[in-house]
Write a structure and sequence with these properties.
- This protein has 11 helices and 12 strands.
- The protein is α+β, with helices and mostly antiparallel strands.
- It folds into 3 domains: 161 residues, DNA-binding pseudobarrel domain (At1g16640 B3 domain), CATH 2.40.330; 107 residues, Restriction Endonuclease (3-Layer(aba) Sandwich), CATH 3.40.91; 128 residues, Restriction Endonuclease.
- The strands form 2 sheets. Strands 4-3-2-6-5-1-7 form a 7-stranded mixed β-sheet, with helices on one face. The chain has a 5-stranded mixed β-sheet with strand order 8-9-10-11-12.
- Helix 9 links the parallel strand 11 and strand 12.
- The longest helix has 33 residues.
- The relative contact order is 0.11.
Length: 425
């Protein structure tokens, strides 16, 4: 199917009374980890919204069966099971919800090569599963993902997203902490007055995040993930305070409504694209690296090419006499499936391209292809378990990457003398 087919499909689904659930498939959802979960994990609150009759705590492992048509892959049809594994209520440990019954690796939902892919499940509201067919699409390339995210907003790894087409803005149902207990959700009287006049920039929100999550003493990996969660919560709180009153007042025309919705969605995409880079810059500064001397942001390596970070500097990269083996680059992408190829020509002088990602795993074939192309993955430590076991030993943590930079920096400054191990942070 061409991209136009997905656009037509989305238009068709939006004409029905449905609920949409989107997420990125993790290595534990597919069979990339050989974890035998046999189906995507879905937060219970979302699955109960999609299938209300599943919320039967008195039953052991209640389930709902429904028919699913996967339109992205020749309209493949299966009978699928939504199940709530609730044995924790009976003294054991499991309490999670999944959809299962996809049949194995031939299913696009379980294919290890679809690890990181954006999928969309379209479900009729209520429990009409016996008379209706649920529909699904598993995106096959970045263009399809871009088209879907243009409609519903960015979907990041580990974030489930429930959306109703008749609502102008999607609602993320990975529920943030209750507002009265959260240090990051800003109440309306806590939002700076100037933010109501002009939506804050990413840098302004990051600055507020650092106030709430200084995290001095935490390793870089934990700082990055905790601050990302806090920053997203601040963003959501400001967005709600500004946009919800506008939505409640209503719109005088369809054009006005579409313009407002597009503004909100574009703002979300812009935030998602820049957030990771801004957080990394702050962490590099905190860990003793100096901008301009030890790293450069968005420096032009070659005409039209701007890696997220070059080490030690743009000036060093542009100096032909500076040894190429002493140069490093780091790209920052929340997901790396397919998109890792975008970094291959970002810095011609650097053979090994470091890529920091928050994606929940990759398949062995994906990792092999990245490695053979000279891409080294940098993944926060707590996400390593979502990768296949034989890949984990080849991943760098953010702490590892920064330590290597500092060791190389000190090595160069000392004329090639070795650095003592106790210098590790």
């Amino acid at each position: 199917m061409a991209l136009a087919d997905l656009a037509d499909w989305l238009d068709e689904q939006s004409r029905r009374e449905t609920l949409w659930f989107a997420k990125r498939l993790s290595a534990n959802d597919t069979l990339a980890n050989n974890a035998h979960q046999a189906g995507p994990y879905i937060p219970k609150n979302i699955l109960f919204t999609l299938f209300p009759s599943l919320d039967r705590p008195e039953d052991k492992n209640p389930e709902v069966r429904f028919r699913l048509q996967i339109d992205s892959h020749q309209g493949e049809r299966r009978e699928i099971r939504a199940v709530w594994y609730n044995n924790r209520r009976r003294g054991k440990t499991r309490d999670e919800a999944r959809i299962t019954g996809f049949g194995g690796r031939s299913s696009p939902f379980l294919d290890p090569e679809n690890t990181g892919a954006l999928m969309l499940l379209v479900v009729p509201p209520g429990d009409n599963t016996q008379t209706s067919i649920c529909r699904a699409w598993v995106c096959r390339n970045p263009s399809e993902e871009d088209l879907l995210e243009d409609l519903i907003g960015p979907v990041e790894p580990g974030k489930g997203f429930l959306w109703a087409p008749e609502v102008p803005v999607g609602k993320d149902l990975v529920v943030p902490p209750p507002k009265e207990r959260s240090r990051c959700w800003l109440l309306e009287n806590e939002i700076p007055e100037e933010w109501f006049k002009k939506f804050p920039s990413g840098a302004e929100i990051i600055k507020k995040t650092l106030e709430f999550r200084p995290l001095h003493g935490e390793i870089p990996d934990k700082r990055l993930l905790k601050r990302r969660e806090c920053e997203y919560e601040i963003f959501q709180s400001v967005e709600e305070a500004i946009e919800l009153p506008v939505i409640r007042r209503g719109f005088s025309s369809v054009s006005e409504f579409v313009d407002r919705a597009q503004t909100i969605l574009q703002r979300r995409k812009s935030r998602s694209g820049k957030s990771l880079e801004l957080h990394l810059k702050e962490i590099f500064l905190e860990d003793g690296l100096s901008e301009g001397r030890d790293f450069s942001c968005q420096a032009e390596s070659e005409p039209g090419k701007r890696p997220d970070f070059i080490f030690p500097s743009e000036a060093a990269y542009r100096d032909p006499s500076f040894p190429s083996e002493k140069l490093r680059m780091l790209a920052a992408k929340t997901t790396c499936k397919d998109r890792w190829r975008q970094i291959l020509n970002e810095a011609d002088r650097i053979q090994v391209k470091h890529l920091l990602t928050l994606q929940d795993g990759v398949s062995e074939n994906q990792f092999r292809e990245m490695s053979e192309s000279g891409v080294q993955l940098v993944v926060p430590k707590s996400l390593h378990d979502s990768y296949p076991p034989n890949i984990r030993q080849n991943l760098l943590t953010l702490k590892d990457f920064i330590y290597e930079l500092r060791v190389w920096q000190a090595f160069s400054q000392n004329g090639g003398e070795s650095i003592a191990a106790e210098d590790e942070p």
